Amino acid sequence: MSEPKGKMERREFLLAGGLVGAGTAVAGVVIVKDRMPSAPQDPTGEKTVRNLNVLKNLKPQEHEDEHVRMQRELVKAMAKPVEKRHWAMVIDTRKCVGCHACTIGCVAENKLPPGVVYRPVVITETGDYPNVQMRFLPRPCMQCDNPSCVPVCPVKATWKRPDGVVAIDYDKCIGCRYCLNACPYGARTSDFGRHYTGEAAGAPSGKDRPMEGIAAAQWEHEPSNEYGKSWSRKDHSSPVGNARKCHFCLHRLEVGQLPMCVTTCIGRATYFGDSNDADSLVSSLIVKNNSQTLLAHLGNKPQCYYLV
Amino acid sequence: MAKTTLSTRDSGYGASASPWKAVLWVIWLILMVGGTIGVFQRFSSGHLAAGYGSYVPWGLWIGLYFLGVGISGGSFIIGAVGYIFGIPGFSRPSELRTAIVLSLAALIPAFIGVALDLGHMERLIKVLTSPVFTSMMAFNAWMYNIFIVVAAVSWLLTFKDNSTWLKPLLVFGAFLSILFPSQSGVFFEAVRTNEFWHSPLLSVLFLASAIALGAAGLLFVRILLGESGNREGYSNAIRWLRTIAVAAIIVYLAFEFAEFSIVLWNPGQHSPSIDFLLFGGYWQVFWILHLLLGALIPLALFASNHKGLWAIAALLTGLGFAAARMCILVPGQIAGHIPGLQQAFQDVRLTYSYHPTSMEYLVGFFMLAVGMAIFYVGIRLGKTFASSPEHGYGSSIEQDGGLQSGTAA
Amino acid sequence: MNNTKDNEIKSRRSFLAGGALLGTGLLISAPKVMAGQNDQGSSAVLNSKRPDAAYELVKPTNMIYSACLQCNTGCGITCKQQNGVITKIDGNPYNPWTLLPHLPYATHPQDAAPVDGSICPKGQAGLQTAYDPYRLRKVLKRAGKRGENKWISIPFEQAVQEICDGGKLFAKVPGEENREVEGLKKLRALTDPKVSKEMAGDVKKILDEKDKEKKKALIEEFKSKYAADLDKLIDPNHPDLGPRNNQIVLAWGRLKGGRGDLYKRFAGGLGTTNAHGHTTVCQGSLYFTCKAISEQYVDGKFGDGKKFYWQADLENSRFVFFVGANLFEGNYGPPNRAVRLTSNLVSGYTRIAVADPRFSKLASKAWKWLPIKPGTDAALAAGMIRWILENKRFDAKFLSCANKAAAVAAGENSWSNASWLVEIKDGKPGKLVRAADVGIAQPEARKTKDGKDYQEKFLLTMVQGQPIAVDPNDTKTPVNGDLFVNTTLPDGTVVKSGLQVLLESSQQRTTKEWAEFAGVNEADMIAVARELTSYGKKAAVDIHRGPAQHTNGFYNVLSWMTINMLLGNFDAKGGMIAASTYDYMGKGKLYELSAQPGKTSAFGISSIRHGLDYEKTTIFAGYPAKRNWYPLSSDIYEEIIPSIGDAYPYQVKALFLYMGAPTYSLPAGDTNIKILCNTEKVPLFIANDILIGTTSMYADYIFPDLSHLERWEFQGS
Ligand SMILES: Nc1nc2c(c(=O)[nH]1)N[C@H]1C(S)=C(S)[C@@H](COP(=O)(O)OP(=O)(O)OC[C@H]3O[C@@H](n4cnc5c(=O)[nH]c(N)nc54)[C@H](O)[C@@H]3O)O[C@H]1N2
Ligand SMILES: Nc1nc2c(c(=O)[nH]1)N[C@H]1C(S)=C(S)[C@@H](COP(=O)(O)OP(=O)(O)OC[C@H]3O[C@@H](n4cnc5c(=O)[nH]c(N)nc54)[C@H](O)[C@@H]3O)O[C@H]1N2
Ligand code: SF4
Ligand code: SF4
Ligand code: SF4
Ligand code: SF4
Ligand code: SF4
Ligand SMILES: [Mo]
User: Fold this and answer.
1) What was the ipTM of the complex prediction?
2) How close is the Cα of C256 to the center of ligand 7, in Å?
């Protein structure tokens, strides 16, 4: 019956202090270290310069479609190394007709499954008859300069690129959905592995339908080209199980094309370009006195602006 | 299964002594069978059978995860502090071991919950291999793993006669276990864009609940395990634990009230989250599960001096804080910043509402069953080691009495 | 990353990826660094082990230009494929509806490839139509009662065989064991081109004969002349019902150039006069009104009107009043109209107002929204007309032009009947006065286009109080008539000018009353009228189905078009323009599939009794007729099936339906279901659909169709 002694000896005390001290120190260090801007995980410099001959053989027409003008500016921007570009989007809500072409264009372009959407168009109705009004608010990812979604990611799967785009590497993402909760704009959605035609075909459940989407039509199995890579959703492979969001169609920029939601905007309400280029259309629009950003008070510094 | 029936046999003497034990076995079997079904569903149809989506990304499992973390931290702190200061009823290695085992039995299943919640479970390890410590998730994951090591080592050291490392480790473990419940709060607070979560009070709430849960948890298992031939130590511990639990629950309620009172006295500040929590579709979770069953009734039962009632109070406390977790988790997610977003693109997984599915509950059962199993095995291992000759000190619970009904007192 | 072996593998991989990108040719001309190639491995955009992949959808070799028909606006599209599957549909950059201005036609496809036009979401969803899991791939034959939705699939050849030969086709279906179905071979009775041509001529004579007795005689004559072929007629005693071929009825919903030719060719082959479209359920009354107002003065009569679909010239209009036009959700169509409007709205160049019972998306862009009561458009228009006339805010210069010469002199694109005089009989306006009838001018002997002699009597207008004879088409002597005339001619005829008649009818109610009638606020109505008349010809009333799709649709449309007339904006920049499209048949009509040498000429009363006066026919039996007759319009969708139900004017034996769903799209369309399910009334019903549709589900056979991405069809409308 040797009752253990009820207090600590000096030695034990020091050891304890040491352990706790060390623990605290290490914790402090790693957190501070990770706060520091780390070297970009993206290709930079010369190797990111693109000399595209897009539109080079087409003389500018007078009153050229704004889309064509912006595409020329895009080609110009791509001739700079990535760190010299800063992509920005401007959406003129007065020109938006609420047609959802951008939403669907994006869904088709990026092969988005049910429940995944990068650019919904929010429609709000206000007022009482006869004084009623309808407003349209397309909502891509804001590519925030101070993105609240990035620091919460436990595995570096999402980060801010040199050109301002907040990217996700589906191969790194573990699908914890922390970033979904951290984005105030609801811009991130999770790919739960569903298929439109698979569900339309109405296969009861299990393998055939939602999971593998075997019943789904071929077009749903074709890989998407996000980030210039090939992503096939077959057999629950990424991006299934990952957080997904708008990436300003980096893969289209690579080949000199404007983002899909821009080119398909029938109201010509969506502008896109390099805000580092003083002559670009977006640069001139961002500073207009009717230019705003969403939820500015949260301090995310969105790079998608709205003209109202 | 085979293993368990076996162990039932060789701990047979306890079974006769304790009607509870038989009951517990039945409960465990039910939980395990149901749980296995749930886990099977989870793997056969991925997340499709789950109720969470993209606008409410986290559901029941994350709630249970934070419950487990709480129990784990709380029981370790109490066990360690009690041992270090040699408080009767905590000062024996066996009594310390009980706390450590409970701590691990609560922590490990919690991980199962998170793992199953991931979109890519196979990449779980990345959190340890390529962490970013700006993320509370990475930080906590590391902390827990270190803690598990610390706890495990301390557990082993309890068999060694007066080891110089035991107490320092316990202190470090206690330090971690104070840290991580409060860090669990930060897990939510760190989401600066979420008004409901972005409040420093969460750390305090999580810490208070951890202490309450640890106390209640220990109280329950101690009553379950019985006096172990150290009557006054035992009843001293029970009384201590009761006091701690009561105090912690009251602190929790106080801070919780502090949090909501702002809103209640400042209508301008009225947030949809609070509305949902107090008056929304799931008002029962807050008022009945958390407040009435989970706090007020336990307080009342603790007030009595019938240990059997304390055990029930302890259980209710656990249930109550499970509800309390959901009361923080869900309201923080059902209020989007952009009105009309839900209508903008219609999909079952793009709604600002959350209803746990049967699959989620069954997986919850699984977590609980695993926890019980770990605890049982842990206790038996302790017994086996301790009874082996080389460390033959002090009669420990394993030697006399075995598992007895606490109601005997 | 320092593992050299690792790098080797990567760089080889990246080389391949780079090569793939190179394959896209036009993307990169001598780039400093090939996309997908750098020291890190494959990472043009993203550093990672996953290799870069070329962007298939930008390769010209993966693009097919076509026309969208997800709605029938028919925008130009680019179908982009990967691995032979279309995965993206975008606007065709050569098309003026999706890019403004469109790329020059001379642009090389390689240069055009990276340029996308803009189309609406429905158009982009076209691939889901093509790859719809529910699409039919085989011919379906009914295996249960009609509408029971029990089917077996049979080979195409068998289906054709059965339908042509007829017989006990549904012996397996309970209740139809002994039902004999007449096949097309039997129904296609009259096949001789010569005979049919002659018969057609003689039937016309019979119809045109007004005298009862003579009509009888003509019929007898007909019977004896064609004694050998009488069995080929529906009813020898009523030759004007035409050949039994007419008992085959072809109906269609949306049908465009190319496809239309094939369908007409099919009808021609069957020798039936019954090929009817759906226009009346669409915006028929809009077409027919525009046909009426565009009628020309030819050979002393009015005719040659065109079924115009006038739209506002959004690119140049300063003010547009949209009435029942759903620009951003429907219409013809969102892409081409939105792109021409939004920039002008934002720049302030253009202002719009909207009259719609519903607050449409278009209304959200409007300076004023008039929440009009459905069906009361004519009232609202009348109120505005009254205000415009009384406040002299109309285009007098245009309206006074009484003939072409005047219009040319005034630099107008057209002229109107505003100043022409109308005869007033007991207070009511009647015919246009002919100068020769009232002794103002001598009749003039002239020849018609096809060389017949006729007497030109001229119209009459008042010039500073003097009645003057006018020939609207006269290009030499300009005549500018007085606009408001209310007088009696020397010979005692009471006359008023067209505009005077309009003014008086608009004065039947006060502007306040008109506004109340339409359920809108008078001040708003006047505000819109003022704005509308503040931009000369650069303003327009743009209307569509809203006012048109009512039983009073003709008058609604006429009223709105009249306001455009008062603005003198037809064919004017910023005014009303008629959409024109590229001739899909190509120069020299290369693809004129409907041209069909040696086809039997169809004749006889149509199953929907259109384009003909009841009174002229041999089945005239006093009033009321069993069902309405439609002398002026055509494609009366809502009559096709009910007429078959009443077997009036005659019983129908076989019904073909292409791309239509009348049971769904017609008002009270469900009443058609009972008829379609009746095998007595509709012995044979063949549908052509891409899936089992809301109406094709009642058919005996459903032929699977090609989708709009796979078939020969263009925007010819
Ligand atoms: N309540 C109401 N009724 C309306 C209208 C309205 O706005 N409201 N709009 C009116 C107007 S404007 C119109 S034009 C009519 C249209 O009405 P309809 O001309 O009757 O055409 P739909 O109702 O569109 O039916 C189309 C049918 O064709 C099938 N189909 C689709 N694609 C193809 C194809 O590629 N090939 C073939 N062969 N079949 C195909 C579909 O499955 C469906 O069965 O509806 C009118 N009716
Ligand atoms: N999305 C889509 N687009 C289409 C088609 C389609 O099927 N779907 N079909 C194409 C075809 S075939 C057609 S014909 C066009 C039709 O295109 P539109 O005619 O432009 O659009 P609708 O929606 O048919 O009707 C126009 C508007 O009339 C309003 N309205 C209803 N009653 C009245 C009334 O009494 N007075 C007035 N002033 N307004 C009224 C309605 O609220 C509606 O907003 O769309 C074409 N485009
Ligand atoms: S919008 Fe959301 S997802 Fe996009 S960068 Fe900002 S915070 Fe991140
Ligand atoms: S879901 Fe993926 S991207 Fe988002 S936080 Fe988790 S790991 Fe990072
Ligand atoms: S930029 Fe690309 S990814 Fe982002 S919303 Fe537009 S289309 Fe979608
Ligand atoms: S495509 Fe353009 S007009 Fe249509 S909803 Fe999107 S932003 Fe608005
Ligand atoms: S508007 Fe043009 S693109 Fe849209 S569905 Fe109609 S035809 Fe297709
Ligand atoms: Mo139509």
Assistant:
1) 0.92
2) 14
